[in-house]
Amino acid sequence: MKSTLLGKFLDRYWGVNESKGYRKEGERGNSLVMKILLAQLNPIIGDLEGNTDKVLKAIELGKQKGVDCVLFPEMTLCGYAPDDLVLHDNFIDEMENQLDRVVRASSGISVVVGLIRRNPTYEEKNLLVSAAVIDDGNLVGFHDKWLLPTYDVLQLWC
User: Fold this and answer.
1) Do 45 and 26 fall into the same domain?
2) Is 49 in the same domain as 22?
3) How far apart are CA 67 and CA 83, in angstroms?
4) Which residues of 35-56 are buried (b: 16+ CB within 10 A; e: fewer)?
5) Are 82 and 98 in contact (CB under 8 A)?
6) CB under 8 Å to 64, separation ≥6 — which residues?
7) To 10 degrees, what angle do helices 89-105 and 48-65 make?
8) pLDDT digit string (tens) for 129-155?
9) Longest dimension (CA), the chain
10) Using CB atoms within 10 A of its CB, is residue 18 exposed (0-12), middle (13-18) or buried (19+)?
């Protein structure tokens, strides 16, 4: 698991570091207990700003409750399934802007949120269904879904 993005993220959270050892007492992540908020929202398909507002409220709730990480479902920012909306460049651009809002709001907490993004390698598929991994105001990376359904409108962009 350590070679995966999530494994690296957890190692960083718990403070395992070959050169420094474990984090000092009182620092975030100094125990083997991680408090997680599973934020099951009801996103509206295509309402990027409204869905992001819901995400930001859940992040704030997580901070108030003292959780370490807030997890959101697949395609939270755009709603499931966005169908042909993803074929419009401005829709994907705006989703990236909304992701920036989430990153900025994540100071002091970790967040994993689902979205659709452009394939940076431009190989095979043009778009990727991804989970953005965010930690303390930094976008750590993305974990991309590998096995996508190929029915209905999804076959247009998968």
Assistant:
1) no
2) no
3) 34
4) eebebeeebeeeebeebbebbb
5) no
6) none
7) 20
8) 899 999 999 999 888 887 666 655 555
9) 52
10) exposed
The reply to whether 65 and 119 lie within a common domain is yes
H or E stretch covering 96 = helix 89-105
DSSP 110: E
Cβ neighbours of 21 (radius 10 Å): 9
Q: Judging by beta carbons within 10 Å of its beta carbon (0-12, 13-18, 19+), is residue 66 exposed, middle or buried?
A: exposed
What local confidence, expressed as pLDDT, does residue 152 receive? 55
Q: Based on the domain organization, do 100 and 62 belong to the same domain?
A: yes
* CB contact set of 26 (below 8 Å; sequence gap of 6+): none
Measured between alpha carbons, how far is residue 46 from residues 75, 85, 94, 116, 137 in Å? 11, 7, 10, 12, 25
Same domain? 23 vs 77: no
Q: What is the pTM of this model?
A: 0.77
Q: What percent of the chain has pLDDT over 70?
A: 71
CB atoms within 10 A of CB 72: 26
What are the tens digits of pLDDT across the range 97-109? 999 999 999 999 9
pLDDT in tens, 78-135: 998 888 888 888 989 999 999 999 999 999 999 999 999 888 886 777 888 899 999 9
